[in-house]
Amino acid sequence: MKRLLVASILALFASAAAAENVKVGALYPLSGNAASAGAQTKAAIELAVEIINGQHPDVKGMPGTGLPGLNGGKIEVTFADHQGNPSTGQSQALRLIQQDKVTALIGAYQSSVTFASTAVAERYGIPFVVGDSVAANITGRGFKYVFRVTPVATDFAYNYLDFLKDVAATGQPVKNLAIVYENTDYGTSIADTLRKVIKERGFELTADIPYNANTTDVSSQVLQLKDKKPDAVIFVSYTADTILYMRTLKQLDYRPPVVIGDDSGFSDPAFIKNVGTISQGAVNRSAWDIGKPGSVTAKINELFKAKTGFDLDDTSGRNMQAMFVLADAINRAGSGKSDAIRDALKVTDLKPDQLMMGYKGVKFDDTGQNTLAATYLIQLQGDQYVAVWPARSATAKLQIPYKGW
Amino acid sequence: MRWLGIVIGAAFLLYPWLVTDDFYARTGADVLLAAIGASAWNILGGYAGQISVGHAMFFGIGAYLPLLAYSHMGLPPVAGVPLAIVISLGFAIVVGLPTFRLHGHYFSMATIAVAELVRIVIGNWDFVGAATGLMGPAVSRTWLDLSFRSPIPYYYLFLAVLAGLLLLTWHLQRSRMGYYWRAIRAGERPARSLGVRVARYKLYALLLSAAFTSLAGSLYSLMVGFIDPESGFGILRSVEMIIIAALGGAGTLFGPLLGAVLLIPLQTVTNSLFGGGGSGLTYIIYGGIIVVLARFEPGGLLDLWRRASQWWSRRRETVTVRHAA
Known about the structure:
- The complex is a heterodimer of chains A (405) and B (325).
- A seven-stranded mixed beta sheet of chain A has the order 7-6-8-9-10-11-12, sandwiched between helices. In chain A, strands 2-1-3-4-5 form a five-stranded parallel beta sheet, sandwiched between helices.
- The longest helix of chain A is centred in the C-terminal third of the chain and has 20 residues.
- By secondary structure, chain A is of the alpha/beta class.
- Chain A has two domains: 215 residues, Response regulator (Rossmann fold); 150 residues, Response regulator (Rossmann fold, 3-Layer(aba) Sandwich).
- Chain A is globular, with a radius of gyration of 22 Å.
- In chain A, β1, α2 and β2 form a beta-alpha-beta unit.
- Chain B has one domain.
- Helix content of chain B is 76%, strand content 1%.
- Chain B contains 14 helices and two strands; from the N terminus they run αααααβααααβααααα.
- Chain B has a two-stranded antiparallel ribbon with strand order 1-2.
- In chain B, α2 packs parallel to α6 and α2 packs across α11.
- The longest helix of chain B is centred in the middle third of the chain and has 27 residues.
- At the A-B interface, α2, β2, α3, α4 and α6 of A face α2 and α12 of B.
């Protein structure tokens, strides 16, 4: 007992003598209907912090690792649950800033909460790194303390069309496109962006098909596609409806030449499990790729799997990447002062080999948006997705046209 | 009794100066805002006994109009507040006339349906920001934008509105209309047979209730500076008003305020203590309290207080009587 007491007193002194730690607040939906995404993200951020604080020396090359700039200081993360509620997001941001004395924030999954809580951070002069909220106008409000690492809807749209241009170059005609999207927030906002970019890039939009994600029958939508014969179809769908579409395509024996799915439903493990065998060749986006065995990303995935039992997913990966970007800035700032961290974030310049995600780099413009954000395209071949685009990061050859079943 | 009132009043006035940081001041503002919403609901749901589960529709209209005025016309958000009240009143008439033909649960269900319908329409309507929602001025252009860094100005704004609302409610509950409402709550048919014009007085209650719920929504979006269909028109918004009013005591003047004073800090404290762990304990505790209350104290805490003080005075009387004997 006595020895324990002495040891703990010693430990107390040791930590007091060490350099100052930097406190970061993390706002995520840890309860409510996005709780599962929130929990995965929490684990990913905890892992990032372990790596940054030097607990996994075998993961090399991530910026800020070991925090040499802090002279032995560490990063401490405090999590807060905003329950998916914008007002709670604001009050929890206030709590983190005022009571936990965090000097930087990261978050917040739902775009609505990110909108509201970044406003608080801005008023208090606390840098806020946005990991995964994609609503367009989170940046561009004249804020000086908001930095967004993730690609947004326009980035995805440009990526799809660049990809289709490359496909056209192989001799497969790609001119007439169709978009099929679920008719709420997610689907309509992506569809709006796609429509603009399709026009801008000189493609034709031959079918524009919104539908209700809770529907139990999509044969009329598929018949519409079959009638219009587009060269490529882009689906913006959740899980159950994605599965329904794949089954209906087979029932009505229609194979669009190119099938692109926008993350979400196509990324859900249930998709491959249920309709993987009849959706061969479906293309999907993901900025996360596990990579070859032995690579840094494979090691990160291994650690994540040991911690949670799941493979790392795109959303958690983008948040984890944001934590590394923040750590890099804190390291360069050499202190936990908010303004120093913000100034360091402003001049962030990370190269692709310093990133775990498939971005072309991290460099913020005046609005705080990462101008080098991008995504990989992956294709379902056999029972798993493989990276097929862009060519420099491809691990397998693109199979066109869509094979289906 | 009077000194208790003075102490409580002074506590509300001085609260922002008694706490050490903005987080507590913000929680105080959240409490007052919830109290305004629940007190507004209380006029219709408590006094007149018409349990509306669709009040989010008025809250949402109140919350959207200021930000619409800002984002489409560049006006200070506060300019949208009067228009929001007018539209809410219009909605109240359109919704109230047919739904008031329904009674009890059927009325409640109809109000849910209408509010959900409005939510879905708003979520698909580009002019009002569709599913993404609308933003207010993040940084104040003039003081008229009412975009403050500190929560304290909001606290006093909310306190003033709440005081006005409670004063009006106090006045009404002692007026003829207040008695009519209670008669309607006790039973529509007997009330009608005694000459109360039921439809008219129910509509009056709805109009007042809608106007103040709309005002609560406007105050919300002035403070938060952001609104989307879920936080404006979501069913949880209506449910929160009902729970708070029922917890404190529906149909009493201070019941909704008491409910808000207990529930909002409870929510915030449980979330702050346990939320970061990600275990969802917040909702378990929150839900548990509601279940216990619904089972054992359906009349709300003020009812408990009333019975306790009655018991106490009866006891004293018996004691006095015994002494006299």
